[in-house]
Amino acid sequence: VSWTIANRFLLFDQYKRELLELDAFGDVNLSSGVGQNISGYEDLVWMGISPQGILLVDRLENEIVQLDFRLNPVHTIDLNRRIFPEKAALDPWGRLYLYSRDYNSIFLFDKGELDPTPIVNLSKEFGSVFCMAEMQINQEGEMAILGCDGMIHIFSQNGRKKISFPSTIENAVFLIAVRDDWFVFNRIGAGISIHSQKKVSIPGASVPIEDMASMNRSIAVLAKDHILILDVK
Q1: The domain made up of 131-232 is a member of CATH 3.40.430.10
Q2: Where are the beta strands (DSSP E) in 111-189?
Q3: Using an 8 Å Cβ cutoff, are 130 and 151 in contact?
Q4: 94 CB contacts (<8 Å, ≥6 apart)?
């Protein structure tokens, strides 16, 4: 799930490989470009809003797809290096950070081009067996990485590691950026603020959590049959 303009949400149907937009009244708008071509999206790993429009990252096709805000395809950019990104995060200036498990590194995609030199080499930082669960960038441009082992790693804008510490949330899988902070959650709704260490709990009717997204001070929780919106103070 991804938050778009005017309190709308982007959702991806993994079975039909369809991208759809859900508004606050429950009305659905389908992308004209999805489901009408032969292959659809092979492996959509990220979608979000940039200054250029809606961006989609397809891992298997090793490409970035740009849509307008009506979900019409604008163009497709083939990445000039076969990194096959598995995670992505957008910074406040519209730069896209792409995690490649093949290279165990994070690359920067900016102004339509992929920098061939990684901004973060995870093998150098943590060793070749490092496993990433999620990464998010806050409004200050700092990047947080959640490891599969529950460790949190904070990096500066230029890719320098600042600090690492364990998450106190058992089986943490979600990492959400909210203003200058981040929140970590597990699927049963237990969460915590990274900066303040204040605990947060998602109501039982909205768990298990399928996915999460954020905008400004709000967090959207995707459950099986609804989206819950929480304001973070």
Answers
A1: no
A2: 113-114, 120-121, 132-137, 143-147, 151-155, 161-166, 174-178, 181-185
A3: no
A4: 50, 51, 52, 110
Domain boundaries, the chain: 1-122, 131-232
CATH of domain 1-122: 2.130.10.10
DSSP summary character for residue 70: T
Mean pLDDT by 10 residues, the chain (233 residues): 76 80 79 49 87 91 92 92 97 97 98 96 96 97 98 97 97 97 98 96 97 92 94 84
**Bond from prior residue into 208 cis (ω within 30 degrees of 0):** yes
**Burial (CB count within 10 angstroms: exposed 0-12, middle 13-18, buried 19+), residue 8:** middle
Which helix H or strand E contains 212, and what residues bound it?
Answer: strand 211-215
